[in-house]
């Protein structure tokens, strides 16, 4: 109660001093604290500050800049300055302000102190702060530097091993653990980390072997698939990295790297158990800007069979009810020659793909559908060369 009463008394006296003039009136003297904001004004005075600003502007806060220069006087020796920055970094670290801690430790290292042990501690501490920030490579570099300065520095070795664990360098983590265990065979962290790293290393090696076997299997399946396509004289469009299209003559130039069997939806051409190809096929309806997609169109299936299923019910976008299987015409486009070819709906997919001017692009055959004799189709084909199959 006494303390609170005295505090209250000081508050009221400061307020009254701010409010009273030289003659006891209400005029304020020069530089007085305002009675309503005296606490905030007092906090702005360096000597009464409870918290130091994160960054100091020398032009706007000369008093603080002066105090800081006194605190870190360059006339002090490099070792003393480095130690002061280390202590400052430790304070930031305890407050979990790791970014400021990194800055403080870095400033300490810049002082060029010749004390190897002190520099090793600065590197180790900065590495710990970097680790908490998720900068594992930077933390590892600090651990390496600390270990060079002090080879028996166990904290640096533990930190380096932890960094290698985070970077999934399990073999290196094991080596660091073993180096530390030669210094202290009973160090619990290193014993546990050594066992964990060994387990994860064996798991990673097992996964790598599985991935290699799977990659080899997929490569073999792709070779079989390409052989089946080549046997059928189906031509594919290459899409090289230079974004220029190249069309192969036959399939002599088709390579595994040049053939992409997946389309945008993830469906891909594949061989079924009977050795028949099944293709993802895209139907385009230019008049309505609509599409249909068949994920697995059997090469021996006829187009008319799919049309009968697809248009068993009229699509919602066909407001004029024109899209009937019997009234549709199918085409494919020869982009190289800018020519159109009309398909016979009674033909199978294989018969169309084997046409000398049909080229499968990106692993997905594409056909265009129009209503026979419609104004849109007449306009669309106006001026274009059309071939009938």
Indicate the CATH topology of the largest domain.
Ubiquitin-like (UB roll)
Largest sheet: 7 strands, mixed
How would the global form be characterised?
Answer: elongated
Total beta strand runs = 10
Outline the structure in words:
The protein has 389 residues and is of the alpha/beta class. It has two domains: 69-203, Serine Threonine Protein Phosphatase 5, Tetratricopeptide repeat, CATH 1.25.40; 247-388, Ubiquitin-like (UB roll), CATH 3.10.20.90. The chain has 13 helices and ten strands. The strands form two sheets. Strands 3, 4, 5, 6, 7, 9 and 10 form a seven-stranded mixed sheet that branches. α6 packs antiparallel against α7, α7 runs antiparallel to α8 (154-166) and α8 runs parallel beside α10 (188-231). The longest helix is centred in the middle third of the chain and has 44 residues, at 188-231. The protein starts with a helix and ends with a strand. Mean pLDDT is 82; it is low at 1-29 and 241-264.
Topology:
Layout: H1 2-19, H2 38-43, H3 62-71, H4 78-94, H5 98-110, H6 116-132, H7 136-149, H8 154-166, H9 170-183, H10 188-231, E1 235-238, E2 246-247, E3 270-271, E4 277-285, E5 290-298, H11 303-310, E6 328-334, E7 339-343, H12 349-353, E8 359-361, E9 366-371, H13 375-381, E10 385-388
Parallel strand pairs: 1-8, 4-9, 7-10
Antiparallel strand pairs: 1-2, 3-4, 4-5, 6-7, 6-9
Keywords: Coiled coil, Repeat, TPR repeat
Pfam family, one: Wheel
GO molecular function, one term: Hsp70 protein binding
């Amino acid at each position: 109660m006494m303390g609170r009463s005295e505090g209250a008394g000081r508050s009221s006296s400061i307020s009254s001093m701010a409010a009273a003039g030289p003659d006891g009136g209400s005029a304020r003297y020069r530089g007085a604290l305002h009675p309503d904001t005296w606490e905030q004004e007092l906090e702005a005075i360096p000597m009464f500050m409870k918290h130091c600003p994160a960054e100091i502007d020398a032009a706007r806060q000369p008093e603080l800049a002066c105090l800081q220069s006194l605190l870190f006087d360059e006339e002090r020796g490099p070792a003393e300055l480095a130690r002061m920055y280390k202590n400052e970094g430790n304070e930031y670290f305890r407050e979990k302000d790791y970014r400021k801690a990194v800055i403080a430790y870095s400033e300490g290292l810049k002082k060029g102190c010749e004390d190897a042990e002190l520099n090793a501690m600065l590197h180790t501490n900065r590495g710990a702060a970097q680790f908490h920030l998720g900068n594992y490579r930077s933390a590892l570099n600090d651990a390496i530097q600390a270990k060079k300065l002090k080879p028996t520095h166990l904290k640096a070795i533990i930190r380096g091993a932890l960094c290698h664990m985070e970077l999934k360098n399990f073999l290196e983590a094991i080596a660091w653990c073993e180096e530390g265990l030669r210094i202290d065979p009973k160090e619990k962290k290193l014993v546990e980390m050594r066992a964990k790293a060994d387990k994860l290393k064996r798991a990673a090696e097992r996964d790598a072997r599985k991935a290699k076997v799977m990659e080899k299997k997929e490569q073999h399946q792709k070779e079989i698939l390409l052989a089946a396509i080549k046997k059928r004289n189906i031509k594919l469009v290459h899409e090289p990295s230079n974004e220029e299209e190249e069309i192969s003559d036959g399939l002599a130039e088709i390579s595994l790297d040049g053939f992409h069997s997946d389309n945008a939806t993830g469906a891909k051409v594949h061989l079924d158990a009977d050795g028949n190809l099944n293709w993802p096929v895209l139907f385009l309806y230019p008049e309505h800007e609509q599409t249909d997609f068949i994920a697995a169109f059997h090469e021996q299936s006829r187009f008319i069979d799919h049309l009968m299923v697809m248009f068993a019910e009229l699509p919602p976008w066909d407001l004029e009810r024109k899209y009937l299987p019997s009234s549709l015409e199918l085409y494919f486009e020869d982009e190289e020659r800018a020519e159109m070819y009309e398909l016979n709906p009674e033909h199978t997919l294989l018969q169309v793909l084997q046409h000398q001017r049909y080229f499968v692009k990106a692993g997905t055959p594409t056909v265009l559908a129009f209503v026979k004799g419609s104004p849109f189709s007449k306009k669309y084909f106006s001026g274009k060369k059309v071939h009938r199959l």
